[in-house]
Structures are given as structure tokens and as C-alpha cells.
Design goal:
Blueprint (H helix, E strand, L loop, with lengths): L1 H23 L9 E8 L16 E3 L5 E6 L4 E6 L4 E7 L12 E6 L4 E6 L3 E5 L4 E4 L9 H4 L2 H4 L4 E3 L4 E4 L10 E5 L6 E5 L4 H5 L2 E7 L2 E7 L3 E6 L2 E6 L5 E5 L4 E5 L21 H12 L3 E8 L4 E10 L9 E9 L5 E6 L10 E4 L2 E8 L2 E10 L1
Protein name: DUF4221 domain-containing protein
Pfam family, one: DUF4221
Length: 383
């Protein structure tokens, strides 16, 4: 009888242990992901949209009701009512003059009311949505290298203005193996706080340029590992295509930390070797294919409806004939508020990654051209 009791007790303990292990193992919420797609178009009324090359940079109002973007020629700020799918307003901006933006807009951020901060090729300023400059952000900071402080293109090439905190975040360009840094610039005091962000060196590590000379003419070839900076759910995210991990900054405390994300189904870092210099286009394109065929991690977005961070990844397979379209593998990753990986999957049936996209009411909106009209593919993901 004692032997029987011992065996029963061991079986009971083993069963309990198995249940505990099963309960602590994180479920993949995207394992059985499915999706459907609807296509919608925006009514321009008696006007029309001038978007021959897509939307470019966009902004979304805090309540996700209004889309902002610029038409380039002539330069106009466009606002679209996403709930009613109609043109809301068009406002002319100037490239030159006292309220001039510049010839090329690189990025912009919008405020909660009617303002926006525009980073252009030659200027950086805050504007009203009616087109008037309210504050110059092209600041020469104090207490940093004077050459860098006066080099606008190097200092502000990846700048992001935070309306809530009234500060600028930027990653200055530095040549060679110089340590990558995040600069936080106070526009009022012109003081700078710096943080090392060494993992962002992966961007330059996997970017290359090749200049081919032929009959006195030059052709420039270029590929890059992309990096992203965005404010989501009250926090600043600095991420890059070659790695799943990212830097997280709390704007309230100006503290920065690296979040080491570990996926189970795909590599978390690129493990490839590239040439430093090229003698011909063929060698350059071989390295370009290596980079494109890695999982390129995309920006991180907060989905308020699910209380999850969602992030796409993509692999791009270039066609042998440049005239033919590329093919893709698309991945989706989900993180909880503590940045635990709660889901990861290859999105079956999604033939290409989203372009110029945003999340609204739990759905993915991705720009599409519908017979030269502004449209969106609206994805409903079920998981």
C-alpha cells in the first residue's frame, strides 16, 4: 500500500509540474493570425490630390481622425478626415521668403492643436497650419563641438521635435567609428544632453555607397539599413532594421535604456559580412541582396485598442531583371507594455509590406494609389 501511495504522489507532483510549466510558457497570440482587406478611397470633392510619388511623410492627429501630408509642387499642407474619407483642407505653404519651408521637406511632427514642426533640407522651424513660422528650431547649441554645432545637415539629419516636452531629439552624423549618440536639445536654453546609443552603429555598418564611372559619367548606387524614431504611448522609440532590440527614452525623466527583444522564430540581429569597397556593380548588388534578404525590422507602433506594441518586419527578394517587381516575406511581431514578446508570425497571404501606414481603431491603414486617387488598404487582423 505504501508503494502505491508513493507512485501516486510522484505522478501527482509530475502533473502539477507540467501544468506549471505550461502556464508559464508564453503563448504566441499571432500563431493563428488571419486578416481581411477592404479598400477605401478619399473624396477630394471638386479638388484633386497631387501625389504622383505617394504621400511621403505623414502625420496623424492624436485621436486618429485627421491625416496630414504635403503635396510637393505647389507646396500645400493637406488634411484628410479619415472618419468621413474626404478632403478636409488644403493650405498653401511657401518654399522661400520669411515663412519659407525650403525646397524639400524631410520630416515633420504635429502638435495637438494647429501647429507642426517641419525639418527641411535648409531649415527647421515650427509653423501654424496656416503657413506662418512661429519659432525657429535651427539652433546652434552650446557646450558641444563648435564645428558640429554649426553644421546643420550633420546635427539635425534625424531630428524629431517633441511638442509636449519642447525639446529636440537628434542623432548627429559622425564619420567613421565614432560612438553613436542621442542628443536632447532644449530650444530655450540651447543646452544639450547626450546619451550613448552604440547599438545604432548597425545602421552605418550595413549601409553602402558605390560610384561607378563610365565614359566620364558617374552613377551613384546606394543601399541602407533604415532607422526609425517615433513617439508612441508617451515614450520615444529609436530602432533600426538590423536588430530586434531598440532604445527607449522616457521624455519625462530623459532616461534612456536599451530593450533587448528576443524573438524565437527569426534572427534578432543580422549576421552577414559586407565588403567595404566595390570594384564593380555586380559585387555591390550581391551585398545589397544580402541586406534586403534579412528580416528588416520596421518601426514600432502602439495599438491602443489592444494595448499592444505592433511591429512589421520584411524580407525583400530583388528580381534578377530590375524591370520585374520584387517579392516579399512579411512578418508581424507583438509586444506587451513591458516589452515581452507575446506574438510573432510570418503573415501568410500578405504579398508586400505596408507602405506609408498607420494604425487606427485596431486596423492597419496602408496607402494605395487607386487610379491616381488617394486610397487605403484597410487590414483587419484577427488574433
Amino acid at each position: 500500500m505504501k508503494r502505491l501511495f508513493t507512485i501516486s504522489l510522484l505522478a501527482f507532483l509530475a502533473a502539477c509540474s507540467g501544468k506549471e510549466s505550461e502556464s508559464t510558457e508564453q503563448k504566441n497570440i499571432l500563431e493563428n493570425l488571419t486578416f481581411s482587406v477592404d479598400t477605401v478611397s478619399v473624396d477630394a470633392g471638386e479638388d484633386f490630390f497631387v501625389i504622383p510619388y505617394g504621400l511621403g511623410r505623414i502625420g496623424i492627429s492624436q485621436n486618429k481622425d485627421i491625416l496630414w501630408f504635403f503635396e510637393k509642387d505647389p507646396l500645400k499642407l493637406i488634411q484628410v478626415n479619415l472618419n468621413e474619407l474626404r478632403l478636409f483642407s488644403k493650405t498653401e505653404f511657401h518654399k522661400e521668403g520669411p515663412n519659407g519651408v525650403g525646397s524639400y521637406i524631410m520630416d515633420f511632427q504635429i502638435s495637438g492643436d494647429d501647429g507642426l514642426a517641419i525639418l527641411a533640407n535648409q531649415s527647421y522651424a515650427k509653423f501654424r497650419k496656416t503657413g506662418e513660422i512661429t519659432e525657429n528650431l535651427k539652433i546652434v547649441p552650446k557646450d558641444i563641438d563648435s564645428e558640429l554645432a554649426n553644421d546643420f545637415s550633420k546635427l539635425y539629419q534625424r531630428a524629431f521635435y517633441d511638442f509636449e516636452e519642447n525639446q529636440i531629439y537628434t542623432q548627429p552624423y559622425k564619420e567613421g567609428n565614432a560612438e553613436k549618440q542621442l542628443f536632447i536639445i532644449n530650444p530655450e536654453t540651447k543646452k544639450v544632453t547626450t546619451f550613448p546609443i552604440p547599438e545604432m552603429k548597425s545602421v552605418s555598418d550595413f549601409s553602402r555607397t558605390y560610384v561607378a564611372e563610365s565614359d566620364g559619367n558617374s552613377m551613384i548606387y546606394f543601399f541602407a539599413a533604415y532607422d526609425y524614431i517615433a513617439k508612441e504611448n508617451g515614450q520615444l522609440f529609436i530602432s533600426a532594421a538590423p536588430m530586434s532590440g531598440f532604445y527607449l527614452m522616457d521624455p519625462k525623466t530623459n532616461s534612456v535604456k536599451f530593450i533587448d527583444i528576443q524573438h524565437k522564430t527569426v534572427p534578432n540581429k543580422w549576421n552577414i559580412n559586407l565588403m567595404e569597397d566595390y570594384n564593380n556593380v555586380t559585387a555591390f548588388e550581391e551585398d545589397q541582396r544580402k541586406v534586403y534578404e534579412q528580416v528588416n525590422y520596421m518601426e514600432i507602433n502602439w495599438d491602443k485598442t489592444r494595448e499592444l506594441y505592433l511591429r512589421f518586419g520584411k524580407k525583400t527578394y530583388l528580381a534578377e531583371n530590375r524591370a520585374d517587381p520584387s517579392t516579399y516575406e512579411v512578418y508581424l511581431f507583438a509586444y506587451d507594455e513591458e516589452f515581452n514578446v507575446v506574438g510573432e508570425t510570418k503573415v501568410k497571404g500578405m504579398k508586400e509590406p505596408p507602405t506609408t501606414y498607420f494604425w487606427k481603431d485596431g486596423k492597419l491603414w496602408s496607402y494605395v494609389n487607386i487610379e491616381d486617387e488617394l486610397g487605403f488598404a484597410v487590414f483587419t487582423f484577427d488574433f
